[in-house]
Structure formats: structure tokens, C-alpha cells
Amino acid sequence: MNFTQKHLKLVLALTAGFLVYFIFLAKYLYIPASNLLNSNVIGIWSAEILIFFLLTSGEIPIRVKKIKINRKSLLSLLIVLAAAFILRFYDLTNIPPGVHGDEGEWGLIELGVLNGKFKEFFSLAQQGIYFDFSILSFTTQAIFLKIFGANLLGVRASSAFAGTLSLIPFYLLAKEWLSKRSAFLASFVLAFSHWTIAYSRLGISNIWTVFWELWFFFFLFKGLKENSRLFFSLAGIFLGLGLYFHHTFKVIPAILAIFFLFLLIKERKQFFKRILPLACFFIMAALIFFPQLIYYWQNPGSFTARLDEISVFNHLSEYQNKYQTSSSLIILITQFSRTIGVFIRGGDIGFFFYGYQGALIDIVSLVFIAIGLLSTFFNLKKNESFLILTWLLAVIILGGTFTIDAPSSQRLIGLAPALFLLAGFGGEKILAFSRSRKMKNYFLGASMILIALLNYNVYFSQYIQSDAGWAQKEPATAIAKYLLSLGESFKVYMLREENPILYFHHGTIRFLAPKIQGVDVGENTLDYIPAKNEINHNLVYIMPPGSKFLPYLKKAYPFGQEHLFINPYNGRPWFTSYEVRQNNYNIDN
Question: Quick one: which of 19, 15, 22 has its CA closest to 291?
Fold first, then answer.
């Protein structure tokens, strides 16, 4: 068989693969789905797999044979993986102690996926600006709910899994650019970072950005290094999958565009020699994300709904008052400075999620990062240096400077790998000053012990004992646990007229106490004191401390029991409950 016949067969096979793909895609779009994993979706995925193998035909056996990792590298990877696993999975149900409302909502959506609530696979869980993430992302996370049960561990386990396994592509990528020692140092910093630990222990999807982007960048650079269709195709797959998950991943295409422009200018001839592998990359990325793109095309505005909401340019008057200036440039400079500052001196405004007010990065790691930053700046012509600096600036600007409530650590989480890669570059420069292997090992050992102790202390000693996080500030978790202790015989009346933050249909309460019945009372509270037609329930009223409605309750139900709950993290009154049992009714309901 000659060259032309081989390529003709490949073209025909690819044409058949694309035909199968678009037939099943058309069926999915025009034939209503009976369930999520229907034959049309399976057909789409099968066609994608077929096209992938056709694009990379002949390469897979060759590349697999070349993949080698020596014992020392494997041991280093296993050490950081073990550390990451323990730090992210240990007592996951109880740490952090507060359950964020979004964790509860995530759990409810995942339960909806498992129970067949959602019929369209390539759509969003909710329209609007909250929870407008792809059903595919919730389906992936729902697997852990299926494994660990419909509980808090099941909700949080997906993040702990993603945070732990992110160390694999991170180490592999670091080893492409650094010595084994420096790659181990960088991976160790990522494993122990209190910032990444925090988001790996929350049942939301921010940390999945780190997982997908690291696999994407690793395969992208392997593809560039070896001009490989296989690695470029894998990079396209991870890019496409990442776009299904958290909004923070949406900055990656912008980084990629700038990086490709840099390559085109720097090495034009070499760039055009990669046309076929690059075509494989774009084909796989497009095929993976195309079904969701069609959904966005059919629902204009849904792709950028959340981005539009958090854009500082849509809140300029508010920020002009906040910073006491009419200059948009000064606003952006201030926002940029605050975003940089959160890594060095703290000030995370995103207290709704993490909220630790100290620096997001410990002082030892910061020294390594600063030296690494200088090193990459002076080697800007290197591909890895340009990419890391582009990565840094893109996330700081798009995820910080241009957003409201900056700096918010949850929007910057995709930056963590870039910063810790810089720590590896910094370690490389410092270690180069010594020729003594023993001195290098002593220095690295001492540095890593300090990094581990500092970060462990921040998260497991300081943070979880404080009210820094929103879930530790608000009483939803305590209310849910209290209601569970009362049992299903009680019906809840949540009096929220004085404090709208208190509400029964809070995600945390609905997920942790799903069988408890309740009502939100937002106005005309006295119409519910006494409650009407409640002879079959025990009652519990929940209200802010010192509520003006408590005397009315005591008058209506003189034999009820009042309980004042104190926030254990700051010692302040949290909420008040008033229990009324059926045998204590003193009125005609």
C-alpha cells in the first residue's frame, strides 16, 4: 500500500467518524432525551473516541513505549500524592465545620442528576447567574455522591479527589521544565498550600479548574516538544472538558490565544510544521465542547451571564464611590494592586467561600515565587516562561482586576499552579548556588518543613477555629443540625422579617435536613403567631437573637421552650429558637 492509499483510507475513515458524530448530535438535538445517558449521547461520545483514535493512529503504541518514570521520580510523586490525599480527605465531613449554602445547592443538583430530574445532558443546571454550570460537570461530581452516599462527604469528595489528583499533571509538567528536586519542591508547595486545601475541601467545582488546566498544559507542552498528534489531541480533549466545569476555566482559551500568537511570532517556520498536530488539537477540543456550544447558541447570553454580573465595568458607579474617584483607570489600578496584595498580605473579600484574611501564600513560598518570577522574566523568550507570565497576568486581570469583590480567592484559584511552578523555578535558582548535594537536601528539607507547618497551622488551627469563612459566620449549618436533632415531627417557621439571611430554603438546610418541613416567613409575621391548622405537628420558630416577635410567641404558647444559640467561633448570639410541642399547645389551632 503506497502513501496516497494510506492517507485516502484515513480521510475516508475520518469522514465516516464525523458523519456518525453529526448524525447522533442531530438526533440528540431533535429527539427528546428520555434520560441523561441516552443512546444519542453515547453515540456522540463513541464517535469522538473513534475520531480520536483515527487522528492519532499509529502514534499510541510509540508514545506509550516512550513513557518512562524512574523510581525516584515515582517515589517523589507518591509522597506528594499521599500528603495531598491526607490533607484533603482527613475528616472531610467535619472540616470545614460550616457547610456553605452553595455546597448544599451542589448536593441537591447532584441528587437531581442521580434521580433523573435533568433530561438534557448538554445544558445548564439553572438559568441565570447562579449554578449555571453544565449538567456534565454535575454528573461527574454526582458519581462521588453515588459512591459515598447522599451526604456531605459525598458532596465534598469530588473536590478532594480533583485537588489530590491535580498533583499528577502538576508534577509531570514541572518535571518537563525543572530538575527532579525543584519539581518535587513545587509539587510539595501545591500539596500543602492552605489556599488549595481550602477549595479541595469545599463541595463546589472551583478546584476542578486546576485539575483540567494542568492536564491541558501538560499535554500541550508534550505535543509541542514531540510534535505529536496524540498529545495535541489529548490537550484538545482536556480543554474541551474543562470548559464544561467552572467559569474560572474560561480564561484558558484567552491564555492559549496569546501563547499561540507568541509561538507564531517566535518560531513561524516550526509553528507551520505543526499544522497537522494543531489541527488534531482544535478538532478534538471543538468536538468535545460543540454540543454545549449549540446550547449556548440556542440560549444567547447564558455563556456570559455570570461574567456579565461580576464585571466591574457594570458596577462603575459603585466603585467610583468605593474608591472615591471618577477615573476608571485608577479603579483598575487599585483593583490590580488589591489582587496582587491578597497573596502577600491577605484581604480575601471572597469570604463567602474561604475568607481567610491572612496571605494566601506563606512567606517561605513567597520567597521562592519572587525569585522564580525574576528568573522567568529574564528568560521571557522561553516558551514555559512566557506561558507562566501570561497565565499570571490573565488570571489576575480577568479573575481579579476586572471583577467585583476583588480580590476573591475562589476566582483566582486557577492561578495557584502557575505560582507554585514559579516556586519551583525559584528553588532551581537557589539550589544552583551550592554544589554540595548534602547542603541542597538540608536546605530543601528545612524549607519544606517550614512550608508544611505554616500552611497546616493556617488551615487546621487558625481557620477552622475562626469565623473567617461565611459558612462559619452564618447559622445555617447549626440550624440544620438542630432541626435534625428535633426530628421530623417538628415543622419549622423561619422568621426572617428582621434578618433576610435566615431562611428555611437555604441550600445547607435543605441538603442536610431534607425531610424536615418548614416555611419561610418574610412579612406579616404576626399572622403566623399562633400558627394556623398545625394540630398534627410540633412547632419550632427560629429567629434572630432578641427578636421582637419572641414576646408574642411566649404569649401565644406560654409553655414553649426558648433556646439561644451562640456562635462558637466568635462568642456572639447566633439565633434563637422557640419550641412548641403538641402537648404544650395552649390555644385552639
Answer: 22
Nearest residue to 463 (alpha-carbon basis) of 84, 160, 202, 211: 202
SS3 487: coil
Does residue 243 belong to any structural domain of this protein?
A: yes
Backbone angles phi, psi at 375, to 5 degrees: -60, -45
**480: three-class secondary structure by DSSP:** helix
- The distance from CA 4 to its chain's CA centroid, rounded to whole angstroms, is 47
Residue 253, preceding peptide bond in cis (omega within 30° of 0): no
Reading the chain (589 residues) residue by residue, the pLDDT tens digits are: 444 565 666 677 778 888 888 888 887 777 655 566 677 888 888 888 888 888 887 777 666 666 667 788 889 899 999 999 999 999 999 999 999 999 999 999 999 999 888 877 888 887 555 778 898 899 999 999 999 999 999 999 999 999 999 999 999 999 999 999 999 999 999 999 999 999 999 999 999 999 999 999 999 999 999 888 899 999 999 999 999 999 999 999 999 999 999 999 998 888 878 888 899 999 999 999 998 888 888 887 787 777 778 899 999 999 999 999 999 999 999 999 999 999 999 989 866 789 899 999 999 999 999 999 999 999 999 999 999 999 999 999 999 999 998 899 999 999 999 999 999 999 999 998 888 888 888 999 999 999 999 999 999 999 998 888 778 888 999 999 999 999 999 999 999 999 888 899 999 999 999 999 999 998 899 999 988 877 778 999 999 999 999 999 999 999 999 999 999 988 999 999 999 998 766 554 4
How many separate domains does the chain show? 3
Q: Could you tell me if 125 and 223 lie in one domain? A: yes
CB-facing half-sphere around the CA of 242: CA atoms within 13 A: 27
Distance of CA 416 to the CA centre of its chain: 12
Rounded Cα distance, 342 and 324, in Å: 21
- Distance (Å, whole) CA 86 – CA 164: 9
* Alpha carbons 237 and 53: distance in angstroms, whole number: 12
AA letter at 534: E
Q: Is residue 5 part of a domain?
A: no
- 49 with 69, same domain: the answer is no
Domain assignment present for residue 6? The answer is no
First to last CA, the chain: 90
Do 244 and 142 share a structural domain?
A: yes
Instruction: Judge if the upstream peptide bond of residue 407 is cis by omega within 30 degrees of 0.
Output: yes
- Residue 558 has φ and ψ, to the nearest 5°, of -65, -15
Query: What would the grid cell of residue 517 be?
Result: 418541613
